[in-house]
Amino acid sequence: MTTMQTPIPTLFMRGGTSRGPFFNEADLPADPRWRDPILLAVMGSPDPRQIDGLGGAHPLTSKVGIVGKGKTPGVDLTFLFAQIAPDKDTVDTSPNCGNMLAAAVPFALENGLLQAQGEYSTFRVLALNTGMQCDITVATPGGQVAYSGATHIDGVPGSAAPITINFLDTAGSVCASLLPTGQICNRLALPGWGEIDVTCIDNGMPLVIMHAADLGRTGHESVAELNADSELRAHLESLRLHCGELMGLGNVSQKSYPKMCLIAAAKQGGSIATRCFIPHVCHDAIGVLAAVTVATACVLEGSVAYGLASLPTGHNKLVSVEHPSGEFSVELSLGADGQTVERAALLRTARLIMRGEVMVPAHLVPA
Length: 367
Ligand code: NQM
Known about the structure:
Layout: E1 5-15, E2 18-24, H1 32-43, E3 63-69, E4 77-84, E5 91-92, H2 98-101, H3 104-111, E6 120-127, E7 132-139, E8 163-167, E9 186-190, E10 194-202, E11 206-211, H4 223-227, H5 230-246, E12 259-264, E13 272-277, H6 288-299, E14 316-323, E15 326-334, E16 341-348, E17 350-361
Parallel strand pairs: 2-3, 4-6, 11-12, 13-14
Antiparallel strand pairs: 1-2, 1-17, 3-4, 4-5, 6-7, 7-8, 8-16, 9-10, 10-11, 12-13, 14-15, 15-16
Residues 17-18, 59-60, 96-99, 205, 259, 278, 283, 287-290 line the site of (1E)-4-oxobut-1-ene-1,2,4-tricarboxylic acid.
């Protein structure tokens, strides 16, 4: 075995409230049997501190983006998200990540995979994780990606240039349908606790949504309080394993989904308050597609969120999802029945943090 290291070109980027290295797909092996050990080495997993790699020892900073040119008509770009567990040797490419997705177009423009179109550039991106498509608009004054600007997103200090994401087809991303149990609400027995109503839903991210009050919590606790609450975390994991089966996802013990979402009445003028477990630690904010999915549950009659959320009337609804570090606004366009979400639009920001080469043991890279 060689003792050398091999360099792989990478851009280290923030996408929304997540962060990680981005690669041109041409610079990585396509075969996951070769690709995944490279990604683990890049991030320094498995190790809770990820001390030997680029990972930030938290699920939100242990993410990788892989970007390629579109290969089908109408698709400009492909994006594959990989969730690397800090402390395990797992690389999960089955769920989406709307936060990392926000940096896909800036990466492609930096890399020459795409050319700017004018003051603003809009491209259709196919998320290979689930086959979902979206249109992403980035500010490109003078043909360059703009990073600075006046848009603030909660969970990220300061402000930056806006990135608009318009999701076109999010229903049933990892699951077979929007409501994969076939019901809008399931009453489940939680051993050692009692019965609890949950809504199992996937409008871009598989989620199990429940009232925090049904688990004896307020839904307004801090992330630190919730992460220290071992009784709650045990209840959530037991519900998650059960719901994974009900949602047709099989044994989810090693999977990063479904995520578990506690809801409560909004407290800061938003539509609903959330605390989202991803799935074992509480998110400091909320995932993009998790926010889209919670917002969707808010408009569906009979869900555990319906009635708790205060929503505007009409077919275009701005749903403000409160989370531990602020709020996340999702604009939903509903169909004529008022129960079908046809489009979800939202704002993110991204930033190129560093460009360079990441070094991996040479034996991991095929000759
Ligand atoms: O739901 C965290 C994140 C995510 C995923 C997670 C995401 C999404 O905040 O689209 O963005 O749920 O693990 O990056």
